[in-house]
Structures are given as structure tokens and as C-alpha cells.
Amino acid sequence: MTPETIAEAAQSEIIYGVKLYPAGVTTNSQDGIKDIEQLYPVFDAMQKFDLILNVHGELPGATTLKAEAEYTPIIRRIHAAFPNLRIVLEHISTREGLETVRQCGPTVKGTITSHHLLTTFEDAEKDAFSFCKPIPKTLADRIALVQAVIDGSSKFFFGSDSAPHPIESKKTNKDGERGDCAAGVFSMGWTTCLVLDALEIGTRCGWITKEQTTREAIEGFLSRYGRDFYRIPTSSSHSVDSESPKSRIRLERQGQTIPMSITSSDGKIEVVPFRRGEKTWSLYWIEG
């Protein structure tokens, strides 16, 4: 990656950002970044051309539970050096990650996944299909993530981080017993519904209140804040304030069950979804 590559990407009008993977912290990242300052000319070009830096924030060599927290000083360093560079700390899993985003300026945001809202370290340790990177952390971290979803600050928005690894890559069976497996969960077909599941659980457990869980807060997290930060135009026909929106989603509690597995049409690839066999919300697209 070079400043010239960034200039070319910016002219494409279809590239919004560049993903940074530290070396060896997740699946297929063995050739990732080792010296962050070598990328400063690239970051300078990204700031100039207004491309977003998307960061998988884990420190190489750190212990699993501390890798994200120990990477947060690097986020602060990049932000201090390039204050106008838009940065997204992806798939936050810790209170330290949340606090770093909050303490940085308006050019720094964070994404939160449905699976980090629903699991802890223990879940990922015992179930291969809940194992991801960054690995889910403690219950206190999970509670903080749920609270961040509805805080209305626009600092945090939804990111699925769905990764449909074939069952062979998980090196396990359908029961999900953990072995040495690929990091990543497959949630895409139900991930929006799972966010609502997490908010329901949070309300029942007293982590958040029903009054906090407003339509505006949920729409902001799922739809508005990310689009605004990426500066993706929203036509009047797609506005949530429009009387006749062209395309919306409707979520209803109808007892839908997440399938135990999904197989490709040729029968060669089988993928096991996150929270397989559990009931969740149903999602429908509303057109025109």
C-alpha cells in the first residue's frame, strides 16, 4: 500500500476506506502490519483524500483477553498524528475500546457486532461457532457494549463482521466442540434481528431500560450513524422521516428459528450459523 494507491482508490468513487490488520491477530492476517509508523505516509494520503481507516484493533503478541485494550494507545497515536483522518475501530469488544472512541475527536467512531452483544469469553471458548476475533470478553464488557448501542451519541454504529467459514475450517462437528479453528461467526442472515435480541436481554437483566430502547436509538445505530460517517447520500425516498420510504425493514417477533446449518446448492460447502437452533426476530423488506 502506497500514497499513490490511496490517490487511485479515492478517484474510484466506489472505495470508502482501507482496512488495517495487525500481523497475525485474526484469520489470514499473518502478512499484516508490524510497524504502524511505516504507514504514516499512507495515513497522510488517506487524510488528504478523505478515505476512512478501518482498524482491526488488536496488539500482536498480546494475550487474547488483553489484545484490544493494549492496542488502544495506537489508535490514540494515529488520531493525534492525523486528527482529520476518519477512523473506525472495528468490532469493539471491550470497555477500553469504547472509552477510546469516546475520548477521541469526532473523526473517530466504532462498530459493534451482534455476536459481541450476545456472548462472552466463555461462550467462544466452548463453542467453535461463537469463536471470533476479537474474542468476546467479560460480562462487564458485554454490558457496556449493549449500553453503547442505545446511548444516542452517534459514536457507535452497527457492523456485522459476519464470516461464513466452512464447517471444515472450524475443525469441529455440528455440536460445536472447540478445537483449533478459524476465527469468525456467520450471522448475516439474522444479525439485525440478533441486535434486538441483545437489547431485549439487556432490558430484562436491567443493563438498560425499556425507555432507552427507542426507535430513534435503534435506527441510529443500525442505519443512520454509519451512513452519515461514511457520507453515503440518503435520497429523500429513503429517509426515515419520509412518509413513503422506498425501502425499509420491518422486524417482528414470529418465532423464527435460526437453522442448524446451511449448505450450498451443489452440496459441497456447509456453514453453521451463529446461535444455530435458537429463536429470533423475523425481518421483512418493505418496498415502496
Describe this structure in words.
The chain is of the alpha/beta class. It has a single domain, classed as Alpha-Beta Barrel (TIM Barrel). Helix content is 32%, strand content 15%. The protein has nine helices and nine strands. The chain has a five-stranded parallel β-sheet with strand order 1-2-3-4-5. Strands 6-9 form a two-stranded antiparallel ribbon. A two-stranded antiparallel ribbon has the order 7-8. Helix 3 (72-81) links the parallel strand 2 (52-55) and strand 3. Helix 1 (3-11) packs parallel to helix 2. Mean pLDDT is 90; it is low at 236-244.
Number of domains: 1
Structural class: alpha/beta
| Cα-to-Cα separation, first versus last residue | 43 Å
Q: Please state the CA-atom Rg, rounded to the nearest Å.
A: 19 Å
The global form is globular
Side-by-side strand order of the widest sheet: 1-2-3-4-5
**Low-pLDDT regions:** 236-244
CATH topology grouping: TIM Barrel
The CATH homologous superfamily is named Metal-dependent hydrolases
Characterize the main sheet.
5 strands, parallel
Total strands: the figure is 9
Mean pLDDT: 90
Q: Quick one: CATH class?
A: Alpha Beta
Helices, by number, come to 9
* Helix/strand order, N-terminal first: HEHEHEHEHHHEHHEEEE
CATH architecture: Alpha-Beta Barrel
> Fraction of residues in helices?
25-40%
Q: DSSP strand (E) fraction?
A: 5-15%
Quick overview:
Keywords: Hydrolase, Metal-binding, Pyrimidine biosynthesis, Zinc. This protein is an alpha/beta fold and 288 residues long.
